[in-house]
Amino acid sequence: MLSLPTAHCAACISAVEHGLEAVPGVRSARVNLTLKRASVDADAGVTAEQLIEVLKGIGYEAHELDASSLSMTETDRQGRALLMRLAVAGFAMMNVMLLSVAVWSGASDATRDLFHWISGIIALPAIVYSAQPFFAKAWSALRVRRLNMDVPISLAIILAAGLSIYETSQSGENAYFDAALSLTFFLLGGRYLDYRTRRVARSAAEELAALEVPRAQLVSGETVPVSELAAGDLVRVLPGSRVPVDGVIVEGHSELDRSLLTGESLPVAAGPETVVSAGEVNLTGPLTVRVTAAGKDSSLHRMADLVAVAETSRNRYTSLADKAASIYAPVVHLLALFAFIGWYMATGDARLSINIAVATLIITCPCALGLAVPAVATAASGRLFRAGLLVKNGTALERLAEVDTVVFDKTGTLTMGEPEADDLSRHGREELAVARALAEASAHPLSRALAAAIAAMGTAPADVEDIREVPGHGVEGRYRGRQVRLGRAEWLGVRAVTGTATYMQLGEGPAMAFTFTDSLREGAKEAVEELRKMGLDMILLSGDSPEAVAAVARKVGIEAWEAQVLPADKAARIAVLARSGRKVLMVGDGLNDTAALASAHASISPASALEAARVVSDIVLLGRSLTPIAEAVQVARAATRRIKENFAIAALYNAVSIPVALAGFATPLAAALAMSFSSICVSLNAMRLIRR
Hints:
Elements (H helix, E strand, L loop, with lengths): L1 E2 L6 H12 L4 E7 L4 E6 L5 H10 L5 E2 L12 H28 L4 H22 L1 H12 L6 H20 L7 H22 L5 H8 L3 E4 L4 E3 L8 E4 L8 E6 L2 E4 L1 H4 L5 E3 L4 E2 L4 E2 L4 E7 L5 H16 L5 H28 L2 H15 L2 H20 L2 E3 L4 H6 L3 E4 L1 H5 E7 L7 H11 L5 H12 L8 E6 L3 E6 L2 E6 L1 H4 L7 E7 L5 E9 L3 H10 L3 E5 L4 H11 L3 E3 L4 H13 L4 E4 L6 H6 L2 E5 L4 H6 L2 E3 L6 H35 L5 H20 L5
Parallel strand pairs: 15-22, 15-24, 22-23, 24-25, 25-26
Antiparallel strand pairs: 1-3, 1-4, 2-3, 5-6, 5-7, 7-13, 8-11, 8-13, 9-10, 9-12, 14-26, 16-21, 17-18, 18-19, 19-20, 20-21
């Protein structure tokens, strides 16, 4: 199982599948674009590393996933079930409405009874099937002696259907089959809209656990599951591989890419006695690592636990709809009870009293409330999608509207996380040709950036012989009888310049520096300015060096910043802000940001972020620019206003309809018209969000 974070269209599916199936030993490859995963069926001799290199060669980033740690939730059963129930309720409602129109038009006696019986035959099976989501949740709430919005909904549907059967058997004038189906249809529509906004959200802790390398190679050459390793075992980590365990290097020199875990933009040198963590990438040389922790005891797994805890705390957020339901449900029940008691005391007619009590339940039942939040969320999500933002969580907009502080990560968020060579024109053509030849022989990110920049200038590589990579130091070779080197300053015996640089020496001549900058992400400065105008405070937290963090903070205009912040410390900083009453929006992209993204009041990650970071985020930024973040906050605030306006519409509707129902004037026709009118008003108010 491979994660494909950069796959985004049908052409990607075709390219990945054909690329993988061309590998000898691969029997089949299937891409799931929704989950951005590829499932590969291959012979035992085919390794994940081979497949990842093949995909890299055709332009696709890939990471191995441990299929055993992913829950089998690939099929969208819940969404299909909701859609099927909605379709059944809608089909039945239309047919019963046709029969009801005849009754409302004046059909009487045997004709009316016949239409009522046919309506019942259509409605009852449809209600039993379609209303199950409401019945199940209402029963769950009643079992623990509490009320939710599903209790009055279920009660109204059941009583409407039951009373309609009784009235039909007694040749009564009124039957509420159409109202019961309308209730079910409109409220299922709201549930499905709500489900659609949550559909792409999956467990980030699960994704993090799946990123852990499932196998490790012992020094003996045997490959074993990581779960079978114990402290003290020796494992071999080859160049280009992800470190599978926490441990200490006992043999070998290399460089480690820790950007996903710590946010450091540059690889760090590693040799004997260097401590390594699961999830780091070995870049240049083979390493032998003595295991100190593996599997569930590794730092990567502990980070997954941090995310799981943070997700749990976020799930305690009470949405506006839940707050409304906690007030609305008991009020509706009491009104229906008072209607029955009042009319029975006044008339002594139990049948009339039950009719009026049920009519009160039906006409006050929360169609408008059930649509108030989903309709707004759908309209706002559509507008933000057109602006380049994908909203993944049902309460994301409500929480985003409340934020007063924005915490940014640096590498990969405010910056692109890709070093770019500074002006190369000050170097001679021969120097650039030698530099390109050496740089192309290295996997170091600075070497790759330098080679690409020189190639873009049209300079061909020089004829450098005997090129070899010195793990942890750089690349060397011979050019026209002279030794040439490209690598770290200390390896060449020179003093490092300020900032990011690599150094080259031709023979005995002086070393020259090639400097690099991590370019700002498009729209970073503008986004910070717009958010500040909206009254939000800005903080920059990064695992990178103080010099690099200070430079970026100065460029984008953020005064408050901290450097060399560990992943757990980021989440702790946000927790401190939360305890002081601040509502934090976290914007980040790496594994080191996942716990912070999960613990923040709201979170955004760019589409280029690691899969686990995108999964835990409430909103994903689809384009390269950060400017839509300000619009997201504006739309979220507008959406919250629309939700409150919809609650006001629902309250006004009830203020008018409740007296009508209590007075005994709520006929089936009046109930159907009232429910439809309130639902349309709420939907039209939500549609106002579509306009900019």
